[in-house]
Structure formats: structure tokens, C-alpha cells
Design brief:
330 residues, alpha+beta, Arc Repressor Mutant, subunit A, BirA Bifunctional Protein, domain 2, SH3 type barrels, 3 domains, seven-stranded mixed beta sheet, five-stranded antiparallel beta sheet, elongated, binds biotin
């Protein structure tokens, strides 16, 4: 705690601040101030000191830590945060907590995932120090019919937060990949728990993986033409804690707006969906050949209305699509 308070004072002071001033402000000894500064330096904070002037913060690491998050969001909200250096998968860790009774809104983040999970049994590449790997527990009050639109709501929440914090122009590739410039920036994997007797949904673990400060070489060769990161798009590094703050705020809002505020989410989704009106390939089953179709519209339940070559139409509720004749991820 002391360390975070010392950091707070250094962040707010534009110039040097004396050890004595810090100790008086916080009601702690000078030795405690020295200790706090030492441990902040060990975490990577650039703190210089000058005789008779005190300390000055000159650089902060892009770390996902309590010390950093508490500078940008309320300490009260962080009570339900589990912040890890590494984990197999944040979704797996949160599912364990979910079964132990964790409240709706619980968040697990990690700086590295050894076995990040993607949709359809794929892995999600999760290098250390450059991405956001975050899982959010939602215990929704809705019926089984309404739950299918949850991933689309989440896509909107993520896109809105990236737009706000990073100034990018996000696209949502049906169902819920977030793209920038036609390349994948973020993937979402939602895992549901259902009570077997009643069929009621007891919890949803929403897993979000965002490529933040990766360079092209951080991606495996097979992803280099289709993936991108926020820093690659904007040309400057982004601070992950700022994104986590906004993302959490959007997901907290979603918690109160799902499923009742459907039209607000639909409007955003439709306005940011790049495939409408395009000739696409529909992949319904993994390993099977795609079926060519035209994407007509996003229906009110977020399903994708397509028309096949024989004129038949279908509302797709799941599956994957790509735009025909395009390179990249779209
Ligand atoms: C996809 O694009 O296929 C979905 C990727 C989802 C990745 C996130 S990272 C945080 C959470 N933990 C996981 O193991 N997966 C999700």
C-alpha cells in the first residue's frame, strides 16, 4: 500500500519531491519512504534522486500491476481483480474461481499465458509483456435464447474501449473478432457454465486477448499477414493499464445493459461490421470446405443473414466467415 501511495505522490508531482514531504504526507518514516522507492525501482520505475531536492519519477514501465492500476481506477474496483504474472489461461483460472462462487465482475489478468485458448480448439499466442489477457466473470440474468448475443455485446464493449483509449477505428468481424486495417487485433472466447438440472446459465467467463505492443516479429510466421497490434496501427506504444481501465468500465456497463440495451449495441455493431454486402466464404464446420455466399445483414439477434448461390437464405448463429478474394484476416 505504502509503495502505491508513494508512487501516487511521485506521479502527481511534476518536479522533485522531498523524502520529508512524502513522509509527512503519508505519516510514515523516512526509512519507509526509502524502502518504497527501492521496491518501485526494482519494479522498473525510473526514479532519480538529488540531494536536498528529493525524488523525481522520470519513467514508468508498462506493467500490469496493482501499483499501476490503482493510479487509473478506483481501489474499490480492484478488490475483485486477480493480477498474475503468468498462468496457463486466464479463462481456466477464472472458471475455477467461478465454481468457488466468485461474484459477477471478477477479473483475472496475466502478463503471460502459457496455454492461451482460442475458439474452436485453437491456441491464442500470448507473449509476455506486450498483450492484454483478461477474463471477466459475468453472471447474467437472462434466458438461454438471449445468451447467444452475449459475444456480440462483448465485441462492442471491447471495440468501444479501444476506440476511446487508443483512437483506433475498430472493425468487428462477425462474430466477435476485433480488427484494425483488416487485421486481427483482438480475439474473444466466451465459456458458459450451465446448471444441468434446470439448464440455467450460472456464469459466463468472457476471455479477451488484445495485441497491444507486439511488433510483427512477435507473431508466429503463420500469423504475420493476418495479425496486428495497437502499437503497429497507431505507431506508438499504448499503456496496457489504461486499456484495462476502460475495458473494465465497458464490461461493468455491459453487465447492467445485457440483454436489455440490445438496440444500442446493435447500432454500434452494424456500423462497424465490414462484411455486409460482400461476397464471403462461410466455414460452418472445421475442416470442411467453405460455402460461398453473400453477407446481407446483421439480424436483430446478431446472427448473420447470408444468401447462398442457389438463392437460399440462412441466418447464421455461429461459424466463421472470410471475405472472398481478400488477403489478410477479413
Ligand atoms: C480467438 O480469437 O480465437 C479467441 C481468443 C481469446 C483469447 C483470450 S486471452 C484471455 C482469455 N484466456 C484464454 O485462454 N483465452 C482468452
Amino acid at each position: 500500500m505504502t509503495k502505491d501511495e508513494v508512487l501516487g505522490i511521485l506521479i502527481r508531482s511534476e518536479d522533485y519531491v522531498s523524502g520529508e514531504h512524502i513522509s509527512r504526507q503519508l505519516g510514515i518514516s523516512r526509512a519507509a519512504v526509502n524502502l518504497a522507492v527501492g521496491s518501485l525501482r526494482a519494479e522498473g520505475y525510473g526514479i532519480i534522486s538529488k540531494t536536498r531536492s528529493g525524488y523525481k519519477l522520470i519513467s514508468s514501465p508498462d506493467r500490469i500491476s496493482y501499483s499501476e492500476l490503482v493510479q487509473v481506477m478506483p481501489a474499490e474496483r480492484l478488490k475483485d481483480f486477480i493480477i498474475l504474472e503468468s498462468v496457463d489461461s486466464t479463462n481456466n483460472r477464472l472458471k475455477t474461481l467461478e465454481h468457488e462462487g466468485a461474484p459477477s465482475g471478477t477479473v483475472v489478468t496475466a502478463d503471460y499465458q502459457a496455454a492461451g485458448k482460442g475458439r474452436r480448439g485453437r491456441t491464442f499466442v500470448s507473449p509476455k509483456g506486450s498483450g492484454i489477457y483478461l477474463s471477466y466473470l459475468l453472471r447474467p440474468e437472462c434466458n438461454a435464447d438471449q445468451i447467444s448475443s452475449l459475444t456480440a455485446f462483448v465485441a462492442v464493449a471491447v471495440a468501444r474501449s479501444l476506440e476511446k483509449v487508443c483512437g483506433i477505428d475498430p472493425q468487428i468481424k462477425w462474430v466477435n473478432d476485433i480488427l484494425a486495417g483488416g487485421r486481427k487485433l483482438c480475439g474473444i472466447l466466451t465459456e458458459l457454465s450451465v446448471e444441468s438440472e434446470s439448464g440455467a446459465i450460472t456464469g459466463c467467463v468472457i476471455g479477451i486477448g488484445i495485441n497491444v505492443n507486439m511488433s510483427v516479429n512477435d507473431f508466429p510466421t503463420e500469423l504475420r499477414d493476418t495479425a496486428t497490434s495497437i502499437s503497429a496501427v497507431t505507431g506508438k506504444p499504448a499503456r496496457r493499464c489504461d486499456i484495462i481501465r476502460e475495458l473494465t468500465a465497458e464490461l461493468d456497463l455491459l453487465q447492467t445493459e445485457f440483454p436489455s440495451s440490445r438496440s444500442k449495441y446493435l447500432d454500434y455493431y452494424r456500423a462497424h461490421c465490414p462484411i455486409i454486402g460482400k461476397n464471403i466464404n462461410v466455414y460452418k464446420i472445421i475442416g470442411k470446405d467453405p460455402v460461398p455466399a453473400k453477407a446481407l445483414s446483421i439480424s436483430d439477434d446478431f446472427s448473420l443473414l447470408v444468401e447462398y448461390k442457389d438463392g437460399n437464405r440462412e441466418n447464421l448463429r455461429s461459424g466463421e466467415v472470410t471475405i472472398r478474394g481478400m488477403n489478410g484476416y477479413i
